[in-house]
Design a protein that fits this description.
The chain is mainly beta. The protein is built from 2 helices and 17 strands. The strands form 2 sheets. The protein has a 14-stranded antiparallel β-barrel. Strands 6-7 form a two-stranded antiparallel sheet. A hairpin with a 3-residue loop joins strand 8 and strand 9.
Length: 333
């Protein structure tokens, strides 16, 4: 049964990536643990230099799973109220049938509206390299019902098996005190051509992301700042639209230093997708998170869900002036 499913998945995968479909970005469940990937305006949002590493293995029970790696570094420079960052992302889809590498540079400017409110505006410039392993693809005209894959295909080989293009994205991020945050990001502003055939109109469509949330204290603070060990609850919502694909994520975090517990429900508008459970461990200079996607769609019996790991190191910056807030209050995971 799994073998049969794998064959047909390869067929569907080809249709999506090499004919007249449009591309979709890899998706991380720990959104805020990969902040620059979520929104370019989150560059420097922690106000301290940080190195972030992410790993995601989606549908590990299948031979045609999706594996994504990401590494990011960003730093805020107080003298010019600006932040800079770099990111490298590698996505392997269909057991290496389609490989995409992305190299990105980031810039954001922090505007202090008043004592408690910050607004970040960010820009992202990316270089994409995408490769297709044509020999690993299987078409329906190659399959004999008894003997399996024995026939040559009549499908035309793509004009290009290796494509490169440049892309641009932007975003805004608002933070109020240490209790509210919200952001808007638009990726793929120029909708670059990303097709393997020279005679089609395949483009990387613009993606819109809206995210917001808050932090609820469970103990009275008065005028004092929140204790690091205080128990807090953080409800969140995230909406993404990539052409006709629409997705809503609703979740909540429970924070009690040094631990963070979280759960999300992901719904793809037309059908439910997954429940996400997450556990994180935080210290002053680093954090570690693990999450698992529990598939609730019709694929739940064969995919194996998704595993995701995040790791972040935060460095001290002695040149930065002391602030009334440590960072824009987005979640860590």
């Amino acid at each position: 049964m799994i073998k049969k499913f794998t064959i047909y998945f390869n067929i569907a995968f080809l249709v999506l990536v090499s004919l007249k479909g449009y591309s979709q970005d890899p998706s991380f469940s720990q959104f805020y643990a990969n902040p620059l990937y979520l929104n370019p305006a989150m560059t420097g949002s922690n106000f301290t230099p940080r190195l972030t590493i992410n790993y995601r293995n989606q549908w590990p029970s299948l031979d045609v799973n999706f594996v994504t790696y990401s590494a990011t570094y960003d730093q805020y420079i107080d003298n010019i109220s600006s932040s800079f960052g770099v990111m490298v992302t590698t996505d392997r889809a269909g057991d290496g049938v389609l490989n995409t590498s992305t190299f990105s540079g980031f810039y954001s400017y922090t505007l202090r509206i008043n004592r408690h409110t910050y607004l970040n505006a960010g820009l992202q410039a990316s270089f994409y390299q995408r490769k297709l392993d044509w020999q690993e693809l299987i078409f329906d005209d190659q399959i004999n019902p008894v003997q399996g894959v024995i026939y040559p295909t009549s499908e035309r080989m793509p004009d290009n098996l290796d494509i490169n293009f440049v892309d641009f994205s932007t975003g805004l991020l608002l933070g109020y005190k240490d209790i509210f945050y919200g952001g808007l990001a638009i990726h793929h502003l120029t909708e670059p051509y990303d097709g393997f055939y020279n005679d089609n109109n395949s483009r990387l469509s613009s993606k819109f992301t809206l995210h917001m949330g808050g932090v609820i204290d469970t103990e009275r603070r008065g005028r004092a700042r929140r204790r690091e060990e205080a128990l807090t609850i953080s409800p969140n919502i995230l909406y993404q639209q990539h052409e006709s694909f629409k997705q809503v994520n609703v979740g909540v975090y429970l924070n009690r230093f040094p631990f963070v517990l979280g759960t999300w429900y992901r719904h793809n508008i037309e059908n439910p997708d997954a429940f996400i459970v997450m556990v994180g461990f935080k210290q002053e200079t680093f954090q570690f998170g693990y999450s698992y996607d529990i598939t609730v769609s019709k694929l739940r019996n064969v995919t194996g869900g998704a595993h995701e790991i995040s790791f972040q190191v935060r460095f001290k910056n002695p040149r930065m002036r002391r602030r009334s807030v440590d960072r824009i209050p987005c979640p860590s995971f």
